[in-house]
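Service request form, structural biology core

Requester: graduate student, group of Dr. S.
Request type: structure prediction, single chain
Budget code: on file
Notes: please return the result as structure tokens.

Sequence provided:
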Amino acid sequence: MNRQPVVAGRFYPDSPDQLRKELEMYSGTPDVDGDRPVDRLIMVPHAGYMFSGEPCGKTLAQSKLADTVFLLGPNHTGLGSPLSVWDTGSWEFPGGNLDVDEELAAKLIESGAGFVSNEKAHSREHSLEVIVPFLHHLNPAIKIVPVCVSEASPSNLRKAGEAIADIMENHPEPISIVVSSDMSHFISADQAKKLDSMALEAIIRMDPSDLYSIVSSNQISMCGVLPMTMGMFAVKKLGATSGKLVQYTNSGQATGDYERVVAYAGVIIS
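Core staff response, request fulfilled:
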């Protein structure tokens, strides 16, 4: 079964030509050292392209992703299961599609870490859909394993992340993780920067437990903290020790309103 786009024409253009122009504008020319190893984990935002297209495109352009990607995002709708995998077919968008790596999706479901085949969680969710055209623009041959995450237990997130790490470690070809997350929501730009800097600092020093704790204790409205915590547990098990912030911005750059913003960050963990 192929997933049809649900936010085309709202979050990004539903015209293939206009979509391609925007992807080119936001991504520019990829600037990656061909000899460097693939990046283990990147985090990019998922708002409408006019708001988050620049940090998303800029981060992806500086990333070196494997040809296969675990695509992890938050569950905004509450539908489906805590760790919902779309395990068949392809994800379509105006003018193209990306195929699901069905073999890896099956391994994830068989891992015993709580992943289940569930399309309902993805049916109205935008967090992964808006990233798919960017991934296709970067490499039309990329295969994806989309996972919608609402699992809130830190121990279960660790278990799930480490199951992903085991699959990555035993796979004959490199695999990357792409996490979709925005940062603080609907507070002033100054407040957002103060709070988000604490969360991003934990990400940069690769401490998933501290990220979870900081976001929870400070009530930071980082919508993708659960998939990011899970992804960080995965790459930490694989030996990742630090990351870098590519860009931090907010919706005020587009609207001019800095009193009530949504903030966005792009991060690369090699």
